[in-house]
Write a structure and sequence with these properties.
Elements (H helix, E strand, L loop, with lengths): L8 E2 L7 H6 L9 H7 L12 E4 L2 E4 L3 H9 L1 H5 L12 E3 L1 H4 L14 H7 L6 E8 L2 E5 L6
Antiparallel strand pairs: 1-2, 2-3, 4-5, 5-6
Length: 147
């Protein structure tokens, strides 16, 4: 008797309900497994059904169709022996209306951008609305790109 092969499939044009998709998200949630495995970057993906794949009764989202197609060719490459960071080890973006409520002395590095300091070795004030909370510290950034 032939063993059943588990294959992934694109969700495009399948008419799957978004509620079902949300209830059966993979362990990656809305993060791209290919980018995590290849680059160790957690890239949050849009909930675009076009770039979504159903594999082993779980939905996976991807940064782009390139990553999606890589995943489809060999899903186990991106899922076996993968350690995801714990939720408490991830930075959380603060929404702009909440970031505006945070006062200056609560922000790390006196509200200077840590990425500019590390990468460009200079001090630059961050945009007060671009705020991340990470392990009880609040960091600001000077651009969306550095966020």
């Amino acid at each position: 008797m032939r063993e059943k092969e588990t294959r992934s499939c694109k969700v495009k044009n399948m008419g799957i309900d978004r509620i079902l998709m949300k209830q059966t998200l993979s362990d990656f949630k809305y993060y791209c497994p290919v980018t995590w495995k290849n680059e160790k970057l957690l890239v949050k993906c849009s909930a675009n059904k076009e770039d979504c794949v159903l594999y082993k009764n779980a939905f996976y989202y991807f940064k782009s169709t390139v990553e999606r197609d890589l995943f489809i060719t060999n899903p186990n490459r991106f899922l076996v022996n993968v350690l995801l960071p714990k939720p408490q080890d991830l930075p959380i973006r603060v929404l702009p209306h909440k970031a505006a409520e945070v006062i200056l002395h609560e922000k790390a590095l006196n509200a200077h951008c840590s990425v500019t300091l590390m990468d460009e070795e200079r001090v630059k004030k961050g945009d007060t609305l671009l705020l991340i909370v990470f392990k009880d510290a609040k960091f600001v950034f000077d651009s969306e790109f550095k966020l």
